[in-house]
Amino acid sequence: MKTSLGLGTAALLGGTLKADEPKPESANEEPFKKIKIAQIGVRHEHASGKMNTLKMLPQYYEIVGIAAENPEEEKRHKNDGLYKDLNWMSQEELLNIPGLEAVAVETEMTELLPTAMKCAARGLHMHVDKPLGQDLNELKTLLDLCREKNVLIQPGYMYRTNQAFRLLLHAYRSGWLGELHDIQLDMCRNDTSEGFRKWLATYRGGGLYDFGSHLVDFVVELLGAPNEIHVFEKPDPKDGLNDNTLSVLLYEKAIAEIRVSLRKIDGFSRRRLAAHGTKGSFVLDPLENWSRDASGKMVPLNVTLTLDQDQGEYHKGVNALKLEPYTDRYIGQLTEFAHYVRGLKENPYSYDFELLSQKVILAASGYTKWEK
After folding, report:
1. Domains of the chain
2. So what's the pLDDT on residue 175?
3. Prior bond to 71 cis, omega within 30?
4. Going by C-beta distance under 8 Å and a sequence separation of 6 or more, which residues neighbour residue 26?
């Protein structure tokens, strides 16, 4: 059994550095030109986290303003520790900041696309939190505008820069796992707050739409468009929240099961990913771990990679891997976003991919019937 701390993931994934360790500038390179960025919205579940991450990246971003969804939300959050040092203004004022280049859209989920439309119309690049709306036609209109204006749109699917998820993609695309036939993903929680449940119940897709969208997005990146999608739901009879869902995505040779239950007492720690192929398997358990050891160091991600033959630095049999995690949940994506905006990296996610991903998310969370 092989144990590898740190894993050499940088070399494995094409030589990229960890996102929280920016590439040093050589004597022949110009310094990174900071991006003037602002945030619209404080109500999204990830809003404060995204602002915290932006503040962790002063080498890439100059935060020039913030606007709430409405005056009431501004009053409620203006003196929060994370926001009190920022320049508050209306959305209209924010969109007219001289030299503004990018916006983090962190509104209530129903307002994400309408707000993004305003930004795209101004030619502003956007990190837009997830999911990308409940109406595919509305998203198509936005993406068409982004294409017309040559605007970058990056949805907030955090696993697009998670080291373990990237390793699985690499292993599969390199042929290490053979043909995938069984993929199991779990994005469970334990949500008992009456207010939170009442709010989330206003979304027909419930837990799978909100939280499971991260996993659906990854499955689409891994395997593309499914042939069939079947959804099994057991909403809570007391409050109507769609809080217990199993979505099954059928491919030519694979079955992907995505489960979201908001009733598990230890739900967060039970989040996991398992992918089994004809030549190997990959298990990540749990998906994330933000605890620290006695020395204060982040606890590694646990991956079990089982192979039927040697593959590079990994041997036949069971490889127990320890992947050093990012020091922050969103730092990978927002570092990539900066590189995309400045043209230092090419965004691998096309407008067409974003549309396909959201089409699958809506079908997997019960909004639509799937048609390939």
Report:
1. 32-157 (3.40.50.720), 163-325+349-364 (3.30.360.10)
2. 98
3. no
4. none
